[in-house]
Here is the input.
Amino acid sequence: MIKHAFTFLIVLFYAASAIADDSAVLKAVESGARAWLALTDEEHYVESWKQASEHLRQKQSEADWVKKAETIRKPLGAMENRYIATAGYSKKPSGLPEGEYVIVQFYATFKNQALALETITMAKEKDNEWRVADYAIK
Here is the structure.
């Protein structure tokens, strides 16, 4: 009986550690996503491109990214509120190479749009930092 209780405690300890690790990762990812979004909110599109993942920067030139960001974001007007909706892990999101990703969705309100859904795919890069690999808004 004591052996089973000890085994149970070990399993419980490792499960709690895994949950704590996941929580820390999700907190770091959300913080990184919000910091990056703040750049786009303030129309610092060049800086948002520079701080994006290697994959995004290889996929789109700085000039193309700025043009795309202006086309998507300027008509929305100023960002008013943003709330996290979901966050989940993925190893192979659509259109991206295999790796470690967290897909974060935010509900956002803008001056010219009552409600939008922002989807940000954060990629864990070689230096273990999480950076934006993809951004979409509906």
